[in-house]
Design a protein that fits this description.
By secondary structure, this protein is α+β, with helices and mostly antiparallel strands. The protein has helices at residues 5-34, 39-84, 96-143, 162-168, 192-208, 265-301, 307-340, 350-363, 389-407, 436-444, 458-464, 586-592, 596-599, 605-615, 626-635, 637-640, 651-658, 667-674, 684-704, 710-718, and strands at 147-152, 157-160, 219-224, 230-239, 247-249, 252-263, 346-349, 373-379, 384-387, 411-419, 422-430, 446-449, 452-457, 468-474, 479-489, 536-543, 554-563, 566-576, 620-623, 648-650. 48% of the residues lie in helices and 19% in strands.
Length: 727
């Protein structure tokens, strides 16, 4: 094998340099000896000359080290990052050899990415149907009026909808707490004993039917939220294959449970009022009935009683009967709706009901040669009804259509007025009369008209609504009408909460993660848990300055969460904080752009820090240069009464573990190194998002180094130089 030309030239130049240096030294010794220079001066001159001659050699050695030692080490680190993540390429390096190696590595990376893209495309095609089904499930869960939460056996939340988050994260004062989230424990909301008792009841039910292979039903219990709302919970098991993270119920294996929650506060209040009414009627009527009975027995036993005494007994009976009657009338007036309610009814504004009825009657027959016209007359404002709105609208439409079909009525009119504690709803028309027998048959027969049929009659529907209906004529005005009497109710106190619906599919909140069924948080001690199985809170702070020990304050906290290696962008904490008397330095304003005006009226650290502590409960904290942020939090522990004692990982230290030969571990340098897009820089939430992306990119690189558990990550971080920095 022939030697490389560069090696030959380098060897010849080194030999020539040594020969020249040796010859110059010998010539110098001979010259100084002949001229009679003192020996001490002669050796000083030789040493200076030798040092001067060594300087180019040392410079060349450093250059050679940079090119042939440090540069290959950096290339090796970049190659590891590029091998773990697609889209990353090696940069420029000095020397033709390293440049050739760089081109070869980049070429291999191009081929790897091309193959990976082809595999990814095939995977995307294969998963298209699954993703479509998941999208439908997410949309369905978002639109449900009931609260739904799915948990694994450890009580970790795997799925929830927006209604559940609204219902279960409301505090007693009406404020919102971040209690519900993927990977978080349901036992921060419900008492653990309730869930365990429900599962025990399922176990007992399965034992009672040990031979049955049928799916086990649900267990029910009632509990209260922090806001004081009563919820009826239906707990059903989630079945799966038998594994270490499953449990047995009868002959079946379960991996988790589903909670379907109904708000029963209003119905419970109505039941309480009904019970109180019955009790009051019993207690209040007992004395009056006893008096009436005693007086009637006296009149019956003593038929020869003097007339004056008889009149007194009759007056007592009359007075007690009037008192009893007044008591019943008062109760019937105040609680008639509660006493008569049997069907599931809804509160609806009367004017809205009239408007919908007019539209339903007219629109359904718009294609007729002579369409049915609908007009509204008197409609009372602010009148609320508790009715079965669908059934009532169906009944009104049925009557109007039969009038058009059988009596050629071309116009009907609707009116709604108050009549004491009742509402009077009239469907009327002019000029065409029908007999009472026909009208009664319409009200009693099952509703069938226009190709639509129902097993219910109009009378059945009105009985469901606790109302009544009859036919009536006014000969003077040539008007006939069906008059419906309905109970009036109070306006609902609890208006339906708005469900937040995403503008498009890409922005839909990620409320589901089925892979977490396979995760059991109690299967390992925390330090020995694999990094991929932990839940993380990625956080960052903005401050008035850089000196926490000298009184600088936090003015913003931003955080997001990582669960099952997924960054949950829609589960965020983002809050500005009023720093009180502490002024913002000009340097800090230039960095984060937060001015004193933006902090006026914002909550103080005493309010924000406990809320943030709740948000990051049961997770590992992750930050970039986290020692700085943690120092601010620790200084506020005594003031706020909360302590952040969970484990902490720092992406700055992890970068030093992964890239010991790199000169910079700033967040911008790491994002460029790992191919992470930077957005929202120098805002607390923006930095937290970027740090989360960086941390996810680091996990496979740490695994390549054998760092797979929390303990290993913390120990490796502690051995870096940057871990010694104190704030």
């Amino acid at each position: 094998m022939s030697l490389p030309p560069k090696l030959i030239r380098g060897t010849l130049l080194a030999c020539l340099y040594v020969w020249l240096l040796t010859g110059a030294t010998a010539a110098l010794v001979i010259a100084t000896g002949e001229s009679g220079v003192a020996a001490a001066d002669r050796w000083s001159t030789i040493v200076v000359l030798a040092l001067a001659a060594c300087a180019p050699l040392v410079w060349q050695l450093f250059k050679l080290h940079e090119r042939h030692v440090a540069a290959p080490l950096r290339m090796a680190e970049e190659t590891m990052a590029a091998a773990a993540h697609g889209g990353i390429r090696l940069g420029e390096y000095p020397g033709e050899e390293l440049q050739a190696l760089t081109r070869s590595v980049n070429h291999l990376l191009d081929r790897r990415d091309a193959l990976q893209n082809d595999v990814d495309e095939r995977v995307r095609e294969a998963r298209a149907s699954l993703e479509e089904e998941r999208g439908r499930l997410a949309a369905l869960m978002t639109e449900l009026s009931q609260s739904v939460v799915v948990c694994n056996l450890d009580g970790r939340v795997l799925l929830y909808n927006q209604r559940a988050r609204q219902e279960l994260s409301t505090a007693a004062d009406g404020s919102q707490l971040d209690l519900l989230g993927l990977g978080r424990s349901i036992y921060t909301v419900f008492d653990r004993a309730l869930i365990e008792h429900a599962l025990e009841r399922l176990q007992q039910a399965s034992q009672e039917q040990a031979e049955s292979k049928k799916t086990i039903g649900s267990a029910q219990f009632v509990t209260a939220t922090r806001a004081g709302r009563l919820l009826r919970a239906h707990l059903s098991p989630v079945f799966g294959s038998e594994a270490s993270h499953s449990a047995r119920i009868g002959a079946l294996s379960i991996t988790g449970f589903v909670l379907v929650l109904d708000d029963v506060t209003s119905s419970n209040e109505r039941h309480a009022r009904r019970d109180a009414l019955i009790q009051s009627l019993i207690e209040g009527g007992r004395g009056a009935l006893a008096s009436i009975r005693a007086a009637s027995e006296m009149l019956s036993d003593f038929s020869d009683m003097p007339q004056a005494q008889r009149d007194r007994f009759l007056a007592a009976i009359s007075d007690e009967a009037k008192t009893l009657s007044a008591q019943f009338e008062t109760a019937a007036s105040a609680f008639s709706n509660d006493l008569r309610e049997r069907w599931l009814l809804e509160e609806i504004l009367g004017a809205e009901l009239v408007e919908v009825a007019a539209r339903r009657i007219a629109d359904q027959r718009a294609g007729e040669m002579r369409p049915l016209a609908v007009k509204t007359e008197m409609v009372a404002d602010g009148l609320w009804l508790r009715v079965d709105s669908f059934g009532l609208l169906q009944a009104l439409r049925y009557l109007a259509w039969r009038l058009q079909d059988e009596y050629q009525v071309r116009e009907v009119r609707l009116s709604l007025v108050r009549n004491g504690q009742l509402a009077q709803f009239d469907l009327s028309w002019i000029g065409t009369f029908m007999n009472n027998e026909a009208a009664m048959s319409w009200l009693q027969e099952p509703m069938t008209s226009g190709g639509e049929s129902s097993p219910l009659s109009v009378t059945d529907v009105l009985e469901r609504c606790n109302g009544d209906i009859w036919f009536q004529r006014e000969r003077v005005s040539h008007r006939a009408f069906f008059r419906t009497i309905l109970p009036v109710c109070e306006p609902p106190k609890d208006a339906p909460r708005t469900i937040v619906v995403a503008a498009d599919e890409s922005d839909r909140p990620e409320f589901y993660d089925f892979d977490l069924f396979l995760w059991s948080a109690n299967s390992h001690a925390l330090d020995d848990t694999p990094l991929g199985e932990l839940s993380y809170t990625i956080f960052d702070t903005e401050t008035t300055g850089l000196q926490p020990s000298q009184g600088d304050e936090i003015i913003q906290i931003g955080a997001t969460r990582i669960v099952n290696r997924r960054l949950l962008r829609h589960e965020c904490f983002d809050q500005l904080i009023n720093p009180g008397d502490r002024e913002l330095s000009a340097e800090s304003i230039d960095i984060h752009g937060i001015t004193p005006e933006l902090l006026v009226g914002q909550p103080t650290i005493d309010t924000v820090l406990p809320a943030f502590h709740t948000f990051c409960a049961d997770t590992v904290l992750v930050g970039h240069n986290a020692a700085f942020d943690m120092r601010f939090l620790q200084l506020k522990e005594r003031q706020t009464g909360v302590r952040f004692d969970q484990p902490v990982l720092d992406t700055l230290l992890l970068s030093a573990v992964l890239y010991p030969n790199q000169t910079s571990h700033r967040l911008e340098a790491i994002t460029e190194r790992l191919g992470v897009s930077v957005f929202g820089r120098h805002t607390a939430l923006g930095d937290a998002m970027v740090t989360g992306e960086v941390f996810l990119k680091m996990l496979p690189l740490l695994a390549e180094m054998g760092i797979t558990t929390l303990r290993q990550a913390r120990e490796a971080s502690q051995h870096t130089y940057h871990a010694r920095i104190k704030y």
